[in-house]
Recover the amino acids of this structure.
């Protein structure tokens, strides 16, 4: 079976030009404290992204009409495509798109088992990537490992970030060792170097997606979640990740510049402390759409990203409803690069 790397494909950096963005209308009531408030938050994220690039919102057939009406009310030209799904995190359930630099567009269809089986019903979600690739007219590469798009991030120049707790999770890939995992990530993302982080956040249903922890903002530069509160149970794990990043070198041999983003206060929800993250931002064409939590650190985080992206507008969207479901702006979006 030909791999993307063998066929000349690779995952470009998120800041590379986009043909559009895919999202999915919220549909799993148990995921949300209030499903309608969650949908309203998705509308706000979609409207923010649609200012800068085309957005396609997928929805189940029974929800498509309501999604169209809600999105049309924003005045944005957002398409709605009927794609069956049990869930709404397209970062994880849509394909990870690839290009070959010669006009070819493809995508990785990772095996999906609902984050190691935290949900019983996910058959429709497991078919989302294939359907989206068909709609996009892109070549499909079926990966031989269970993974979600939020578990990987690349610089487009041969380096990937990921976490051991997700890729080597025995509920996802029980027989997978680290060497083989690295080989598969290199083959399916078209990278040369994998930097392994730890799942630092306490409250994360995914088990430790890297898009809550660290993200490339340009070649050799990483924005990472920080923590100054030594009493926070996450403190030591977050500092460990910062140390790993500061010691790492990318595929080009560069030492990484690590920029810490502040951590918002950890609000209690259903008896547990949430773990919201400003790192869960989306890089759109000409913009960065980032989470806000009505927190004193919102502005400091916005300014930090504005310094990292001086040529892009930084748009902050209130996303506390997403944080209650262990998600963020990046989780709700999946970019389709220009081929």
């Amino acid at each position: 079976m030909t791999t993307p790397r063998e066929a000349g494909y690779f995952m470009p950096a998120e800041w590379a030009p986009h043909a559009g963005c895919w999202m999915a209308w919220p549909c799993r009531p148990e995921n949300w404290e209030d499903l309608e408030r969650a949908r309203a938050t998705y509308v706000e994220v979609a409207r923010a992204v649609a200012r800068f690039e085309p957005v396609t919102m997928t929805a189940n057939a029974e929800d498509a009409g309501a999604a169209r009406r809600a999105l049309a009310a924003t005045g944005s030209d957002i398409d709605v495509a009927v794609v069956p799904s049990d869930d709404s995190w397209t970062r994880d359930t849509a394909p990870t798109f690839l290009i070959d630099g010669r006009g070819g567009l493809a995508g990785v269809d990772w095996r999906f088992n609902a984050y190691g089986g935290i949900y019983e019903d996910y058959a429709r979600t497991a078919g989302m990537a294939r359907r989206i690739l068909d709609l996009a007219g892109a070549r499909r590469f079926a990966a031989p490992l269970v993974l979600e798009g939020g578990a990987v991030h690349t610089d487009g120049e041969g380096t990937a970030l990921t976490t051991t707790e997700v890729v080597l999770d025995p509920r996802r890939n029980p027989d997978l060792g680290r060497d083989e995992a690295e080989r598969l990530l290199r083959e399916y993302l078209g990278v040369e170097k994998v930097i392994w982080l730890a799942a630092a956040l306490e409250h994360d249903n995914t088990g430790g997606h890297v898009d809550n922890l660290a993200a490339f903002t340009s070649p050799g530069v990483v924005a990472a979640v920080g923590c100054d509160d030594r009493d926070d149970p996450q403190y030591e794990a977050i500092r460990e990740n910062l140390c790993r990043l500061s010691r790492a070198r990318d595929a080009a041999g560069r030492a990484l510049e690590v920029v810490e983003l502040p951590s918002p206060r950890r609000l209690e929800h259903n008896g547990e402390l949430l773990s919201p993250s400003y790192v869960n931002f989306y890089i759109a064409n000409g913009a960065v759409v980032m989470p806000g939590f009505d927190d004193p650190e919102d502005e400091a985080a916005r300014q930090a990203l504005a310094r990292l992206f001086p040529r892009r507008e930084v748009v902050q969207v209130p996303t506390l409803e997403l944080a209650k479901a262990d998600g963020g702006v990046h989780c709700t979006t999946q970019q389709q690069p220009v081929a």
Notes: The first strand starts at residue 18 and ends at 24.
